[in-house]
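Record now logged for everyone:
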Amino acid sequence: MSLPSKRLSDSCESCRTPYDGRGKGYLYAIATAILCPCHMPVWGILLGGTAAGVFFEQHFWWLAFALGLLTLLSLYKAIRILL
């Protein structure tokens, strides 16, 4: 008399943890910190002397506005996911 064999996937179902998406929330939180317009002087120093630095200098206010919007969007998404 043989016992019914269990498939590997059936035996490990209790071992798996469901993906809750918190990693995505942490990525949004990191993006919020990096894209914050208060870090623009740091980006200016890091990009100084490059073509990106020239673009940064010529379009400073547009970039500040865009980074501000991206910061608010990523902050909103991070809060929605993590809380």
Remarks:
- Residues 11 and 64 are 53 Å apart (CA to CA).
- Residues 60-82 form the longest helix (23 residues).
- The mean pLDDT is 84.
- Residues 20-82 form one domain.
